[in-house]
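Async update (no meeting this week)

Hi team, since we skipped the sync, here's where things stand on the single-chain job. The sequence we agreed to prioritize is pasted below, unchanged from the tracker. I ran it this morning and attached the output directly underneath so nobody has to dig for it. Comments welcome in thread, and please keep replies under the output.
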Amino acid sequence: MCDVELLEYLEGFISERRKERFKQILGARTNYITVAIEDVYQLHNTSAVIRSCEVFGVQQAHVVEGRFGNRLDKNIAVGAEQWVDINRYRNIGSCIKSLRKQGYQIIATTSHNDSCLLQDFKIDRKTAFLFGTEREGLSQEAMAKSDGFLKIPMSGFTESLNVSVSAAIILQHLTNTLRKAQLPWQLTEAEKFEKRLEWTKKSIKSIDDILERYRR
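Output:
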């Protein structure tokens, strides 16, 4: 089955407006930065982080679910999980190992280390940002295996932000910075094609019947 021909066939079942919308959104998507969420207890927080990834154009998210199980609430994510690639892990070690294989440096977000403030962080290579639990933050293992630390500057008495708020602030700032930089931040043409095909399938009712008809 030729995927190019299949995409052309399936696009006949969606509107021109939706096809152009897919292309527009994929033009702003990136795998240059990503997020990893370690054992967040409140399931709505994980879902809100996924939603922020989708809103700011981050294509992949990584979720460690070793302690509390599935932490994705579709009501909070508001459909974002359909458009973001969610990778799940049983422990932080396997998550970091996978990210390193993909060429990411690992940056721990923490309110207890002033190694680098957000406005001073330089995007010069692929980066994965780790976010920890609401009360405890990141585990000692996550901190020890990180390549650096990132902190959101604060001016009040409160020393920390909700994890989903922190992720939104960091992603909004860094995706804006990234798109102004002369870096290969966009998806490859192959990645864009793969997402167009996947998203088109998700947009069609009775897709299994339509695929069966195509194969015949």
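Quick observations from my side:
The mean pLDDT is 89.
Residues 31-202 form a domain with the Alpha/beta knot fold (CATH 3.40.1280.10).
Reply here if anything looks off.
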